[in-house]
Design goal:
Structural class: alpha+beta
Pfam families: Acetyltransf_3 (PF13302)
Largest sheet: 8 strands, mixed
Number of strands: 8
Order of helices and strands: EEHHHEEEHEHEEH
Protein name: GNAT family N-acetyltransferase
Radius of gyration: 16 Å
Strand order of the largest sheet: 1-2-3-4-5-6-8-7
Organism: Rhodanobacter hydrolyticus
Helix content: 25-40%
Number of helices: 6
Bound molecules: coenzyme A
């Protein structure tokens, strides 16, 4: 699967991405609110190998887009799509710290929302976020997603319980924005 935006190319993760992926995914500022935090480059290699084994749009599985600058090909982030079922998709997006604050995440997510609603004809897209993750909350609100649930202490993070907030968009809301 390949998507292009003004500044980005979205395609599959490759073996040679492991070092760059590890460098930003293991950064504490990036992994703070993430479920997956690689502890070694080898773990990142295995993550990419697992991703490569799963075809795009396989029910009940994740597909991880690589976000690359169109100009240089540099890996600047990734965007995971969870094909929950035939109607619903979840996503999560990550940028390397050096590439944040440029609008790249919003650009990538808009391209993926267009794919999911216009081409794949899904009914609902959602993202799950720790409400302390203000950069992500801002991103989801900037994209026009609607806050529809706040689950109190629904995840255990080590010794503490943390909240989970759900932002969603329906196909009708996506088309009404056009
Ligand atoms: C969540 C995350 C991807 C958001 O990244 P981000 O850089 O804030 O989002 P964008 O790329 O859309 O950039 C938006 C910012 O760039 C600014 N910007 C600069 N140039 C811009 C341009 N040309 N177009 C749009 N926005 C631009 C915007 O004003 C905005 O800044 P602000 O937040 O200070 O108002 C990032 O914080 C991240 O990777 N966090 C760690 C991983 C994580 O927790 N992910 C969430 C899992 S769901």
């Amino acid at each position: 699967m390949l998507l292009e935006t003004a500044r980005l190319r979205l395609d599959s993760l490759r073996g040679e991405d492991a070092q760059a992926l590890f460098a930003y995914r293991a950064d504490p500022s990036v992994s703070r609110y993430q479920g997956w935090r690689p502890t070694s480059p080898d773990e990142t290699v295995r993550f990419i190998e697992r991703e490569q084994a799963v075809a795009f749009d396989t029910p009940d599985s994740w597909f991880q887009f690589a976000l690359r600058l169109r100009d240089s090909g540099e890996l600047v982030g990734d965007l995971g799509l969870h094909f929950v079922n035939a109607d619903t998709v979840e996503f999560g997006v990550t940028l390397s710290p050096a590439q944040q604050g440029r609008g790249l995440a919003a650009e990538a997510v808009r391209a993926v929302l267009a794919l999911v609603f216009d081409s794949l004809k899904r009914h609902r897209v959602y993202a799950s976020v720790d409400p302390r993750n203000l950069a992500c909350v801002k991103l989801l609100e900037r994209l026009g997603m609607r806050k529809e649930a706040h689950f109190r202490e629904s995840w255990r993070e080590g010794d503490i319980w943390v909240d989970d907030v759900i932002y969603a968009m329906l196909a009708g809301e996506w088309s009404a924005r056009m």
